[in-house]
Design goal:
By secondary structure, the chain is of the alpha/beta class. It has 18 helices and 36 strands. Strands 8-9-14-15-16-17-18-19 form an eight-stranded parallel barrel, surrounded by five helices. A seven-stranded mixed beta sheet has the order 1-7-5-6-4-2-3, with helices on one face. The longest helix has 18 residues. The protein is globular. The N and C termini lie far apart (79 Å).
Length: 763
């Protein structure tokens, strides 16, 4: 029987004969590895053999399109496509739409030795069933392949599962936009948020206003390097999508069951428009398309009726191109500086009985919402639209943490969660010094995967207003498609599982095991994904003796970790890692995972500053803001000095508040120096402290001030150090005063300044 079966396989592989329906139950089975993990998967004893004689059965036009997409993937693996027929029962992949009533995008998939049957409640459900089927195929190329016998029931947890792309800062061609959509659909995401207008460029053709294409779509130069360097490349930059190209993208997305939501920014982030039509600004100009990143004071004039006429005309053309229920109108980061001095804006406030500029913004948003509602559309806006009163039917996109989402849900408004802490993919994803330049922050795959979209503060009824979440990709520092893909994947893969799969099905270690296989699929799609998840990582913790230790780990199968503590590069001849590394001196711990004696990925390298307070107890007078909170006061005494890009989860950030911390040593002892680190990055609203002081105490009750400083550098890391003489104590108290309100002309003018602190040093 074995020889007959082997001959059967050889003939099937050659396309001479199909063994479907006759092969024994012990045929080779593939590993079931699906992302996002389905609601339920039951494996069967048998398998389905797919070969050249297999057919796809699809009757509806939507299912035929889905079948063609499956064929495109199959051709990459086998070199051939399957025939698509309207009928068939054996040796068939059967697509059926409309038979599953459990969920709008849900599906079932049954695979046995005779056939594979996918039942979707609607076309999207069938499409997602086919995406699962693709993941049941082997990732190795072959003429014939086994699909494991399975019974799958699946449906998404959230209705809105999105990815955003900013094409205003940097422009990307239509073919790449299609690839971006293809990849998000492959991960069962269903919304593409297309950020089309910015201070630095207008990217959509509006035929009624040709100067948007002629002027607003171009800038004279672009920032080069870090924002703080204030350098430019001197090269003209531009681009926009024609209306025909937009139609092409929208249709492509629809074929992949993806809704495209356009974003037309208002009332802020509109400098590019003012450069072409200066009468729409408060001052009348002259204006030029933005060349540096950040927030500009010049915005649409809220007191000028011509602005509303212009935007209504624009939205008329936009809504004709995009059939989406939602139109995103921005609403974020709108300085009120011009409005407060503009006679037209002040007259509008008086005429409408508006108490302040925030109410004027609310008036602006509500007026545009009413217009779009009249066209059968709803608005989405960033969470600033909550300020001054929320528009009646608006959906809120909560990006400045989760508070905006909580507030909107409690007001019974729909919410899309997209907090910067977990969903901003322009943040760094590795602490390696070899990482390409990014805007800041630190959001590794593990942090994305840990995200829970429904805030604990909401009741069950309030939680029903959380419709889903999305990741945002702002492109100030992302100027090519390879880097873009590197920043998005596999972080988007992690978020896809967060949004689709039941919360109790998620397990990060299991996800990583499935990701190892899934990355091969991304290879087939020629995706330039990041590989950080399998590099060596280090977890810095307190040890039992009150010091600091580093736990090293790597998820790479067959990998071996070696490390050094003398700052030298690790090799396979270095110390093999077996137990946590104790920090006993100033210097760097460096570690590398090796596979077959060859290094894999970036190494782990962390410098430690050894001092008396290392690993000691720290008490904070107040917790830092959620946006910049390392999670434990231990980070103030872990020996790691935070970096200038504040992407390493070391900085304690306080918005509009002072900082006070007390460190407790083991005993009363000589203290020769005290210090702390702060940071100034005004483009990111982070200001130097007004004053820093240190006091010491023997008992934690009676204090004596021993050092004070009130003059600081205005940019970069600020190292506050005070040398002391004849000072003893057990407790050291550090106080740092917040700058206060950001002055006019600065990024975030009128808002509260951030104050950062890290590493309390005692020598």
């Amino acid at each position: 029987m074995k020889n007959v079966f082997r001959l059967c396989l050889l003939m099937a592989a050659a396309g001479l004969w199909s063994c479907t329906g006759s092969h024994p139950g012990n045929a080779p089975k593939g590993k079931v590895s699906i992302i996002p993990v389905p609601v339920s998967v039951s494996e069967k004893a048998d398998s389905f053999l797919l070969d050249k004689q297999t057919v796809i059965v699809a009757s509806s036009e939507a299912d035929k399109k889905t079948a063609a997409l499956f064929n495109a993937w199959l051709k990459e693996l086998t070199g051939y496509e399957l025939d698509i027929k309207s009928q068939g029962d054996k040796n068939a992949i059967v697509l059926q739409t409309g038979n599953d009533t459990t969920n709008a995008e849900g599906y079932t998939l049954e695979a046995d030795h005779n056939k594979v049957v996918i039942n979707g409640n609607n076309g999207a459900g069938t499409f997602y069933g086919v995406q699962t089927l693709i993941q049941l195929l082997p990732v190795q190329k072959a003429d014939a392949m086994y699909i494991p016998g399975v019974s799958i029931k699946d449906a998404p947890r959230f209705a809105y599962r999105g990815l955003h792309l900013d094409v205003g800062r940097h422009f990307f061609p239509v073919e790449f936009i299609k690839k971006y959509i293809d990849l998000l659909a492959m991960h069962k995401m269903n919304t593409f948020h297309w950020h089309l207008t910015e201070d630095q460029g207008w990217r959509i053709e509006i035929k009624r206003y040709p100067r948007l294409q002629e002027i607003s779509s171009k800038r004279k130069e672009t920032m080069a390097g870090k924002y703080s360097d204030n350098k430019y490349d001197g090269k003209p930059y531009g681009g926009y999508y024609t209306q025909e190209q937009v139609k092409e993208v929208v249709k492509y997305a629809a074929d992949h069951f993806v809704t495209v939501i356009p974003e037309i920014e208002m009332p802020g982030h509109s400098l590019a428009v003012l450069a072409a039509y200066p009468n729409l600004g408060c001052t009348g100009g002259p204006y030029e398309v933005g060349t540096h990143w950040g927030v500009y004071d010049d915005v649409y004039c809220a007191g000028n009726d011509s602005v509303y006429t212009f935007l209504q005309d624009v939205l008329d053309e936009v809504t004709a191109l995009f059939p989406s229920k939602y139109i995103h109108i921005g609403g974020d980061e709108c300085p009120k500086v011009r409005w407060e001095k503009c006679p037209k804006c002040q007259a509008r406030m008086k005429q409408e009985g508006l108490k302040d500029a925030h109410a004027l913004q609310s008036y602006f948003i509500q007026r545009m919402e009413k217009y779009l509602n009249g066209k059968g559309r709803q608005i989405i806006g960033w969470d600033e639209i909550l300020e001054g009163g929320l528009a009646p039917n608006a959906t809120v996109m909560s990006w400045r943490g989760i508070e905006g989402g909580i507030a909107a849900a409690k007001q019974k408004h729909n919410v899309i969660m997209t907090p910067g802490s977990h969903c901003y993919f322009d943040h760094y994803q590795s602490r390696s010094p070899n990482e390409p330049l990014a805007i800041g922050g630190f959001t590794p795959v593990s942090k994305v995967y840990s995200y829970e979209p429904i805030p604990a503060e909401l009741s069950k009824e309030e939680a029903s207003y959380i419709k889903g979440a999305q990741a945002n990709l702002w492109t100030e520092y992302i100027n090519n498609t390879d880097y873009l893909e590197y920043m998005v994947y596999p972080r988007a893969t992690a978020l896809a599982e967060v949004l689709w799969s039941p919360a109790d099905k998620r397990n990060y270690d299991n996800f990583l095991e499935r990701l190892k296989i899934h990355l091969t699929r991304l290879d087939l799609k020629k995706v330039n994904y990041a590989k950080h998840v399998f590099e060596v990582t280090g977890q810095v913790t307190e040890d039992k003796k009150g010091g600091v230790q580093v736990k090293l780990d790597s998820k790479l199968d067959g990998g071996k970790v070696f490390f050094t503590t003398d700052s030298s590069a690790p090799t396979p001849q270095s110390t093999p890692y077996t137990t946590p590394v104790q920090i006993t001196k100033t210097g760097a711990v460096r570690a590398q995972v090796f596979l077959n004696d060859k290094p894999f990925g970036n190494e782990y390298s962390q410098r430690f500053f050894f001092h008396k307070a290392l690993g000691k107890k720290v008490t904070l007078a107040a917790e830092p803001d959620k946006a910049y909170n390392p999670g434990s006061s231990f980070a103030l005494v872990n020996g790691i000095e935070g970096n200038a890009t504040f992407n390493d989860n070391q900085w304690f950030g306080y918005k509009g508040a002072n900082i006070e911390a007390i460190v407790e040593l083991d005993s009363v002892q000589d203290i020769h120096a005290v210090g702390m680190n702060s940071l100034a990055s005004k483009g990111n609203w982070i200001y130097p402290p007004k004053e820093v002081s240190f006091a010491v105490s023997d008992d934690g009750k009676t204090w004596k001030e021993v050092y004070k400083q009130n003059s600081f550098a205005q940019d970069g890391i600020i190292k506050v150090r005070g040398n002391l003489q004849q000072v003893r104590g057990r407790y050291i108290k550090m106080k740092a005063g917040n700058y206060g309100i950001i002055p006019a002309g600065g990024a975030g003018a009128g808002d509260k300044a951030w104050l950062f602190a890290d590493e309390l040093i005692v020598l």
